[in-house]
């Protein structure tokens, strides 16, 4: 009888420990997956970005402020270059610049790289001039990374990554473009952000020659002799 009670107590204790361990694991998973996720609904499809406030707190807070206001709804991707970037976040379909909040500090020296699928802040030459515009890297843009605290080498601050719908952005980047004023690579058929929202429930990541405009990033020219 005594041994039976001991076995029952042992079983209950083991069950309690297992429950505590499970709760700890679940809590850890919630922390890991607790990064804000924002869904972009465009007229070409939907994509989702996951943000990294631990690495780029100012950039993420700034971005979420615009999301909360619905600022990006009705804006366009005004610069699309295949195998390079898609850029948006500041112009309407009429190519009018929207009013923004004050610029934020450059957080390019945060360890994050301009790798395929990452989202980064667009800016002018001044390192601390980013406002609402952003771009999404479609290739490994190493030369956009931080190298040293010099305006020429400080780079562009990555603050998140596309975890769903990267194929939508790749398709957008392949759309035919035109030149409108000082803006190069403007899609002929506007790529419009119809709606953005902060997700309540996280989604699982998928396997995954005119003068530039003030917030335009520049792809360096290839070196070497021309062929043909």
List the helices and strands and how they pair.
Elements: H1 2-32, E1 37-42, E2 45-51, H2 57-69, E3 75-81, E4 85-92, E5 118-121, E6 134-137, E7 158-164, H3 166-173, E8 177-180, E9 183-187, E10 193-198
Antiparallel strand pairs: 1-2, 1-10, 2-7, 3-4, 4-6, 5-6, 5-7, 8-9
Structural description of this entry:
The protein has 228 residues and is α+β, with helices and mostly antiparallel strands. The protein has a single domain (35-198), classed as Cyclophilin-like (Cyclophilin, Beta Barrel), CATH 2.40.100.10. The chain has helices at 2-32, 57-69, 166-173, and strands at residues 37-42, 45-51, 75-81, 85-92, 118-121, 134-137, 158-164, 177-180, 183-187, 193-198. A hairpin with a 2-residue loop joins strand 8 and strand 9 (183-187). The model is unreliable at 10-33, 209-214 and 222-228 (pLDDT under 50). This is Peptidyl-prolyl cis-trans isomerase.
């Amino acid at each position: 009888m005594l041994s039976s009670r001991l076995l029952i107590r042992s079983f209950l204790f083991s069950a309690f420990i297992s429950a505590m361990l499970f709760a700890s694991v679940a809590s850890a998973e919630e922390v890991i997956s607790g990064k804000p996720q924002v869904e972009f609904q465009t007229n070409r499809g939907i994509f989702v970005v996951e943000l990294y406030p631990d690495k780029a707190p100012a950039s993420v807070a700034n971005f979420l402020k615009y999301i909360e206001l619905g600022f990006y709804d009705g804006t366009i991707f005004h610069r699309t270059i295949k195998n390079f970037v898609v850029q948006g976040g500041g112009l309407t379909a009429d190519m009018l610049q929207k009013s923004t909040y004050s610029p934020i500090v450059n957080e390019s020296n945060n360890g994050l790289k301009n790798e395929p699928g990452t989202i980064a802040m667009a800016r002018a030459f001044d390192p601390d001039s980013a406002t609402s515009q952003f771009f999404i890297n479609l290739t490994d843009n190493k030369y956009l990374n931080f190298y040293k605290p010099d305006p020429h080498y400080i780079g562009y601050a990555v603050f998140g990554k596309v975890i769903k719908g990267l194929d939508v952005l790749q398709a957008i980047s392949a759309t035919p473009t035109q030149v409108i004023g000082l803006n190069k690579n403007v899609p002929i058929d506007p790529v419009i952000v119809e709606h953005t929202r902060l997700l309540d429930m996280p989604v699982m990541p998928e396997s995954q020659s005119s003068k530039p405009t003030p917030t335009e990033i520049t792809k360096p020219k290839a070196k070497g002799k021309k062929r043909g």
